[in-house]
């Protein structure tokens, strides 16, 4: 049975490990991955995007949450989708980080929920909807 996203319930997830011989990603699926690197800064805002060479193979690396939170360093959850079947390998370089200089007064006292996670983390929107 195909999963249909519904903000009124937890998403259906399945844990995958990419074997050394690679894993073929399928179109019309969302894969949550995690960066190997810990990224972030107390002085710069980080932005994460896909590398041009991987995009030309049909992979989207960061669908919507490409801007990090100032003052937080963590492993990022990646929102990966492909437009055609694509074989990936462990520790493949698929993204790049850009550091932006913030303007004005810096206040990094608040912490956004996902900026505290070091593992792939599915949406928790259903928890906010059902309060």
Task: Give an account of the 3D structure.
The protein is mainly β. It has a domain at 23-102: Deoxyuridine 5'-Triphosphate Nucleotidohydrolase, Chain A. Helices cover 7% and strands 26% of the residues. The protein is built from two helices and nine strands, in the order E-E-E-E-H-E-E-E-E-E-H. The chain has helices at 52-55, 125-129; strands at 23-25, 31-34, 39-40, 45-50, 59-60, 73-74, 77-82, 86-88, 95-100. The chain has a three-stranded antiparallel beta sheet, with no helix packed on it. The protein has a two-stranded antiparallel sheet with strand order 1-8. A two-stranded antiparallel sheet has the order 3-6. The longest helix is centred in the last third of the chain and has 5 residues, at 125-129. It is globular. The two termini are 29 Å apart. The model has no long low-confidence stretch (mean pLDDT 85).
The top level CATH class name of the domain at 23-102: Mainly Beta
Level-2 CATH architecture of the domain at 23-102: Distorted Sandwich
**CATH superfamily membership of the domain at 23-102:** Deoxyuridine triphosphatase (dUTPase)
**Number of DSSP E strands:** 9
Structural class: mainly beta
Let me know the largest β-sheet.
3 strands, antiparallel
Straight-line distance between termini: 29 Å
Rg from Cα: 16 Å
Order of helices and strands: EEEEHEEEEEH
């Amino acid at each position: 049975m195909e999963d249909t996203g519904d903000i009124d319930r937890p998403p259906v997830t399945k844990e995958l490990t990419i074997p050394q011989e690679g894993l073929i990603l399928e179109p019309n699926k969302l894969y949550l991955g995690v960066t190997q690197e810990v990224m972030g800064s107390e002085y710069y805002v980080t932005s994460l995007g896909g590398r041009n060479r991987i995009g030309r193979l049909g992979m989207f690396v960061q669908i919507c949450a490409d801007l990090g939170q100032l003052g937080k360093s963590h492993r990022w959850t990646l929102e990966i989708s492909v437009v055609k079947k694509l074989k990936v390998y462990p520790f493949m370089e698929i993204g790049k980080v850009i550091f932006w200089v913030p303007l004005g007064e810096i206040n990094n006292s608040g912490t956004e929920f996902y900026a505290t996670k070091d593992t792939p983390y599915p949406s928790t929107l259903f928890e906010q909807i059902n309060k």
